[in-house]
Amino acid sequence: MIMVVTVFLKNTFLQLYRPTSCRNLRQFPQKQFMAPNGTGRNLPARIVNGGIAGLVGVTCTFPLDLVKTRLQNQCRVNGELLYKNTFDCVSKVLRTEGFFGMYRGSGVNLLLIMPEKAIKLAANDTFRHSMSGGKPLTLIQEVTAGAGAGLFQVVVTTPMEMLKIHGQDAGRIAAQHSAMNGHSTMTVQSPSAISVAKNLLRTKGVFGLYRGLSATLMRDIPFSVVYFPLFAHLNALGLISGGSSERSPFVVTLLAGMIAGATAAVSVNPMDVIKTRLQTLTPSSGQSEYNGFLDCVRRIFKEEGVRSFFRGALPRAIVIAPLFGIAQSVYFLGIGERMLGAKQLRPV
Question: pTM of the prediction?
Answer without folding.
Answer: 0.70
